[in-house]
Description:
Order of helices and strands: EEEEEEEEEEEEEEEEEE
Radius of gyration: 29 Å
Helix content: under 10%
Structural class: mainly beta
Oligomer: single chain
Number of helices: 0
Low-confidence stretches: 76-81
Shape: elongated
Strand order of the largest sheet: 1-2-3-4-5
Amino acid sequence: TDVQIRYNSNNALAMLCSDGNEVLLYHGGSAKFQTTSTGIDVTGTATMDGLTVDGDVKIYDNANDVLSFGSALYQTIAGSSGSNDLNYRTFANHIWKTGTGASSKTDGTERMRLTSTGLGIGTSPSANLDVRGSGSNGQIYLGGSTSATYGKMYSDNDGTLILAADACNNAGSSSFRVEVDGGEKLRIDSS
């Protein structure tokens, strides 16, 4: 026999205990909390003071798996108290992709990979830092807050290494300098 608890004022259902099955809690006539054979189902937003989970965790945005952790995945994300730090750990490689699609594991273009060898941008790393371009060269830009003024280092497919000071010729009277032991030892300018 089912057990029903209803509001006295409007006879709306508040709780339904099905004989041998689920328990449902209602708010404003809509089921919000339901026990199932595998756990619980919450409709709406759950607000709580804390959460401890024993087992795999998956966070969804609509039907898409946005964030998942589990014993087979060995992933951990933890923020530091009082700061904006984000510590991320995984059992294998860290892979960052761009693009959209139904599967974050297969869709998108890989942009960066962090492995035990190093950091690869545009490639899987073969050194501590490995930068490869999608075309003829991989480039590194170094600069301050003025986006049009920067130094550039790049290498093309024939192995040529190019270092460029003020690569866009935005600052004028710029120079290329080499320092050793805290002092300038070489300067090349436009003169």
